[in-house]
Structures are given as C-alpha cells and as structure tokens.
Write a structure and sequence with these properties.
The protein has 428 residues and is of the alpha/beta class. Helices cover 30% and strands 21% of the residues. Strands 1, 2, 3, 4, 5, 9 and 10 form a seven-stranded mixed beta sheet that branches. α6 links the parallel β7 and β8. α1 runs antiparallel to α2, α2 runs parallel beside α6 and α6 runs parallel beside α7. It is globular, with a radius of gyration of 32 Å. The termini are far apart. 25% of the residues are buried.
C-alpha cells in the first residue's frame, strides 16, 4: 500500500470516528500517523530530483511576498500594477507557468513580489507543479492569497487546506510548549494551565503521540491550552508560520453589499486590478503586516543618513541592536561597545543602549566601537569596567607580604633599619 492510500485510509477512519472527549486519544494518534505520512510524501527518501525551471529565485530586497491563488484570479495583473514588471495575462487559465519576480519600492525599502503559477486541489501531493509553488511559499515573509470575489468562498478553504497539509500555518503562532529530548529518564509531562483540548486524560494522549514518534525520554511542559495539532507541529519541527493577507479581486463585478461583507473579514482586502481600485490601500496593508523596521545610522558629529536605511524584521533575525550590527558588518558585533539611540524606542534622546535593545521604525542609531587597545586587551582576558576602562587583573600576593612591618618578625633575613630606632637600639 502506497503513502497516498494510507493517507486516504486514515482520513476515512477519522471521518467515521465520533468526536468527543473519550475519542480524543484515538484521534490524536491518527493525526500523528497522518502527519508522519504527509512529511514522507513532501520529503521523499529517493534521489533528489531537479527543481522546476524558474522556481529557484534568489532572495532579494528586505522582504519577500508570494502571490498564491487559483488560475485566472488576477495575480499577474496585480504584479504588473504593484511592480511594473510585465507578466503575461490572458483570459484563459494557467497563463503563468513559472515564477516571475518583481520589486516593490515603498517607503525606502525593496520588497520582492513573486507571481507563482496557479495551484489546484491536490497541489500538496504534486498536482500541477504544486510542490514547487508551495516550496517557494515557505520561504516568503508574507503570503498574498488572491481570491475571485465572484466565485464561492470555498476556494479559500481549499487553498488553506492545501497549505496546511504542506506544513504552512497561516496567521498562527507556535504553541507555548517546552519540549526537550533526553537520553534517559523516561517521559515527564507537566501542564501549567488546565488542558481542555486533549480529552479527559491529557497525559495519556501526549504519551501515545510520543510513542508513535518513538520518543520515550523527554520533558514536556504545556504553558498554554494547546491542541493535539499544536503538539504534533512541535514534534515535527518543520512547520512554517507565515502571515497571510486575503485579497479579493474583481469587486467591480459584485454588489456593494457583497463587497462590504468581504471587506469586514479578518486579514482581508478588496481590490479590482482591472479597474485599479484600492491598490494603494493594499500596498499599505502589506507594509503593515510585514512589520518592517527602518533604522537610520549616523556618524559622530554628522546628521543621520536618511537615504538608505537598514531594514530589520522579526522574521529575519529580530529588531535588536545586535541584528543591526550584524547587518552593517560581520565584525561589528565583536567590536561593539555601546550605542546611542534616538526615536520611539527610547525613553529620552539620546539614550545609551546595549545589544539587546529593541528598535522601532525610523529610529536613529550611532554605534561606538571599542578601541584597538580595549579590543586587544579583552582578548587577553582583561575585562572592562562600567566606565569602559580596562580593569587590571588582581595580582596574587604572598601571605608573608600581607603582614605589616613588625620589629619582632623573623623571616630568616637580616632585620631592616627603619630609621626610628637608630644607633641607640644597637644597630650599626
């Protein structure tokens, strides 16, 4: 029996099983088996095959957005309007057969927009080059899901299911669960909050899932009321949590009441690429969801350079001073002494900050490096005081030298003439 047949059999058994607290353990075991089979399906153990032509797009710019949707929903037209890149658009489906990149210049940043071929139902299993499309979507910082406003909303559920089965979690965060494997000691399960999504016996459900993955020695701590799917995602370790913006196109072909209903859905935007309606708000919404942080640098005694900011994001290393130093130069983190910061992240201007200070958009930073003497002495083992001065290592003093001068001390050597006793004391 192949992997596809095993997946279909497990899905059939899950559909026939009644969902209640008594069957949570059985359903959790089936979900664990299903996740393992899907992982094997996405990552075959045979010889690696060549990737599709045009799908190996090098990352460029400060962020990457992937356009995903069914065929003929307006992805190529949106790419042309947002980036100016020419992409073939026609009235028939599957016009785009490869990945076409474009660059959005917005607020001093460069955002890469990828026009991917339309995917169909069953793309996670490889239909219609779906694996290549989903692989590119995993590397994106934001997924822009293009939907046709004139078609039923079931297309949205189909696309979400395909991405979910491929290991992409849309608009979700990893569960707050502590998980650490050990060599010995058995399985230790602890929960800090009441668990309502794991049935009557959460410990037994977690124990059975771990045994399905052949994990017999580990520490597990649930810090939130997580579900079975969240725990399986943690064990698999290959899930990708990506933000998603749902964009409904062709609103010029529906009524205002229908437009109002679509616009009120969470993480949604209504546009018309053909009539060029609401495209500026779409660009602003994408900027807000990417949460890019522009940081300007300045030299001592000079105004800040506002032409080319350093763009940071939480998904690419964080938004701290340490990430900024690594972005400027690879050796700046080692030579970093302190920094002065101006902007919204500071309590006063300027504020002296360290490596762990979190920056906000349009902050100005001036970095100070250690001098050559400080950097060299620190390598030899000497530390720096709070004032930035070198602290000399303490010298080991002999116990004999700690004692003060005494007239009745005898250490085997001649007594010293202190000048107080003089010749009257019998010293020559």
């Amino acid at each position: 029996m192949g992997i596809q047949e095993k997946i279909a059999e497990i899905q059939l058994e899950m559909a026939r099983t009644q969902k209640n607290k008594a069957t949570e353990g059985h359903l959790g075991l089936l979900k664990a088996k299903l996740a393992k089979l899907r992982t094997q399906l996405l990552e075959p153990t045979g010889p690696a095959k060549c990737a599709g032509e045009g799908f190996d797009v090098v990352k460029y710019g400060d962020a990457r957005i992937a356009l995903i949707g069914f065929p003929s929903v307006g992805k190529s037209t949106a790419l042309a309007l947002l980036t100016g890149t020419e992409s073939e658009a026609a009235a028939y489906e599957f016009t785009t057969l490869t990945c076409i990149p474009g660059i959005i210049h917005f607020k001093g940043t460069k955002i890469q927009l990828l026009d991917l071929p339309g995917i169909i139902e069953g793309a996670a299993q490889g239909k219609g080059r779906g694996r290549q499309v989903i692989a590119v979507a995993k590397s994106a910082d934001l997924v822009l899901m293009m939907l046709d406003a004139t078609k039923p909303d079931a297309h949205k559920a189909i696309l979400e299911a395909e991405l979910e089965s491929a290991g992409i979690r849309l608009n979700k965060q990893p569960a707050d669960i502590y998980f650490r494997r050990k060599k010995t000691g058995g399985l230790k399960f602890t929960s800090m909050v009441p668990l309502t999504k794991l049935g009557d016996n959460p410990a037994d459900v977690v124990y059975r899932i771990c045994h399905e993955y052949r994990i017999h020695n580990c520490d597990i701590v649930f810090r939130e009321d997580a579900s079975i799917d969240d725990f399986i995602d943690l064990i698999e370790g290959n899930r990708r949590f990506v933000k998603c913006l749902y964009c409904y196109n062709k609103i010029d072909a529906i009524t205002m009441e229908e437009v109002d209903v679509l616009a009120r859905q969470p993480n949604s935007m209504v546009v018309s690429c053909h009539a060029n309606l609401n495209m500026d708000r779409l660009l602003s919404k994408m900027w807000d969801m990417l949460a890019l942080v522009r940081v300007y640098t300045r030299r001592r005694g000079e105004p800040p350079d506002l032409n080319e900011p350093s763009v940071l994001t939480a998904g690419r290393g964080g938004v701290t001073i340490k990430t900024l130093c690594a972005h400027l130069h690879k050796d700046l983190v080692k030579e970093f002494k302190y920094a002065l910061c101006w902007g919204q992240s500071c309590k006063h201007a300027p504020q002296r900050v360290g490596k762990d200070h979190e920056l906000m958009d349009e902050d100005v930073v001036q970095v100070f490096k250690k001098t050559a003497k400080e950097f060299g002495q620190e390598k030899k083992g000497k530390s720096l005081t709070k004032q930035g001065c070198l602290a000399e290592p303490k010298k080991e003093v002999d116990k004999k030298d700690k004692r003060g001068p005494s007239s009745n001390r005898f250490d085997g050597g001649p007594a010293k003439n202190t000048g107080r006793m003089g010749k009257s004391a019998g010293f020559a």
